[in-house]
What we know:
Elements: H1 7-14, E1 16-19, H2 25-42, H3 46-51, E2 55-58, H4 66-73, H5 77-85, E3 88-98, E4 121-127, E5 138-141, E6 163-164, E7 173-177, E8 182-184, E9 195-202
Antiparallel strand pairs: 1-7, 2-3, 3-9, 4-7, 4-9, 5-6, 5-8
Bound molecules: 2-oxoglutaric acid.
Amino acid sequence: MVRTLSYAEQLDECGYVILPSILSPDTIARTTQRIEQLLDASLSTAEYLHGSKGTAHLKDLDPELPWIAHALREEPIARLVRQHLGDASHRGITYRAPMPGHGAQTLHVDWIGPVYEKHVVCTVLLALVDISGRNGGTRLVRGSHRDVPRMLPKSLRDRMPGEIIPALTAGDALLFSGHIYHGGSENNSPHPRHALLINYEGIR
Ligand SMILES: O=C(O)CCC(=O)C(=O)O
């Protein structure tokens, strides 16, 4: 009989796992409304317009989105992050939304070392819309968190064997190792790709 891997085993083996329906439709609507208010307030600043390069960013959103901060402290996210990294803290809730025609990133890692004994960093992406390869989904190279040596791609066009873009439904969480090769892809839809990103670091 084939045994289904647990979320923790999937994360360990593949370097990522999809956690379905973490946010309810009501929570998504409430979050999107607050994000839109914050974007309205920041979109016209010179700092924002110069820095954005076609992707809307907001950071330090914990005080603005306390219900999201609460969800991060609940099962299953809190448990999985703890199982994966041990004691860990996150660097604040951020928002990243590539606009149509934007968002492509070179594949990169958030921690240069491969995983020997211990995972050091991971990220939770919370989808506020359905996300796929069409609208700027996250590129991931399955299993690459274990690669030695690390061959860092140099160009947006560089592709690696095993690369995938997982399809997410609005409300799903994508939890991925910061040691896996990953990167945003270009948004080829007519709408922004709304998502929250939370980076965790193990306490050493
Ligand atoms: O937004 C994404 O899909 C991934 C973003 C990312 O990897 C980054 O900003 O470093």
